[in-house]
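Why show two proteins at once? Because comparison is the fastest way to build intuition. When a single record is shown, students tend to memorize it. When two are placed side by side, the eye starts asking what differs. So, the first record is below.
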Amino acid sequence: MFRRLSCRILGVIISLVTLFLAAPTQAAPFDYRPYESILHRFAKTGVAIEGIDVTAVDYTGLAAEAKQSSSNYTTLLSDLRSFNPETLDSREDKIAFWINVYNIAAVKTIVDHYPVDSIRNKKIHWLGLPWDRKIITVGGKEYSLGQIENDILLDTFKDLRIHFGLNCASVSCVNLAPEPYRGGTLMRQLDEQGKHFLSDPQKGLRVDRQKKVVYLSQVFKFDQKHFDQLGGGALNFILPYLSPENREFIRKEKENLTVEYLDYIWKSNDIKNVR
């Protein structure tokens, strides 16, 4: 009888183990607390470089923290190396995750080579083109900025609002968000970023009503292909993010407008450049 009872108990244990192993993998959120701490301590909003509104980063302080084995910076990179993004559940969670990864990778590009005056510094890439350079490891795989932006984000999710979340560590980029992007708040965050960016006449949008010229950020030129394919052109895409006055003017005069592009300043958003 004892033997039969033992066999039954063993059978129950085996069944439970089998059931556990067969169960679908639960969605595992990424822990953004180290990144959030970095943003709170090293990013400063509401400042200007060359008269342009930016979120500036204390790269000197961050580069010092990067040398500490138990810092939030090293913990963040370690967590990314071991995290499997396939465990993320929703579309929004995935987009938020990879936007954050892009922004972390851009910061890391500067920190790895600091001091540098620009992400296009020849110290980073001899031709000043860092986009295809492998810079960050996620889930055991290395990625470049170009891969994250194009292959993963834009080509996969086909949402042009993603551009409002990406910061390339430069003055003319959309500002670095002071909080991590999260799936539950992603669309609100991107909409707020888009409205703020396009309200900036120095790097987002400026309208000359007399000459009927719309000056746009070169972000819309760099990725004209996607804006044409997915948004019906940049002017059509930006309308929901404009002030009522600019929106009405562009809608009314769209056929008569010329689009030109604002100068793009690649100087880094380093807090030491704030004036």
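Second record. Ask yourself what differs from the first in the token line.
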Amino acid sequence: MNDYLQKMRGHGQSPPRVSFAEVCWSWLGSFLGIAAVAILHYQLVDQRGLMLLLGSFGASAVLIYGAIRSPLAQPRNFLGGHILSALVGVTACQWLGTCPWLAAAVAVSTSIALMHLTRTLHPPGGATALIAVIGGESVHKLGYLYAVMPVALGAGIMLAIALVVNNIPPTRKYPEFWL
């Protein structure tokens, strides 16, 4: 038991501070990415659905604009994680929607498993799967279209902005890999 508890102490150092320029580039990219997705999706889902969708993409923005070297932030993971998770979430909702707690648990856990198996692990993908289940009637009406629009389209827009903004300063390079 003591060995188990010792694991929780941690043993590494905190990450180093980033430069003010790095903070500014992360801010600019995330502002432009989220603004573009929000403007595009304003008419696609109701206000509640929009807020839930932006929650998922907000977490992605931290990775693709703020932690651009992370394997979890690379295009394969970003696009694959969201799209795969959206498909899983819609399927779980359609098959198990009469039992929302079960549909939610199946959607998130299955999306994690499939992201692992396909090497597309992207933590906000779990939220994308969950939104397909708990997102309300406007999201449920989209069915599998949810995976295309707003998820794939929104992710594509955010990726395009990440490619442009993250490569403007000579100190930043994105992506580290595509496949």
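One difference worth noting in the second protein: The mean pLDDT is 93.
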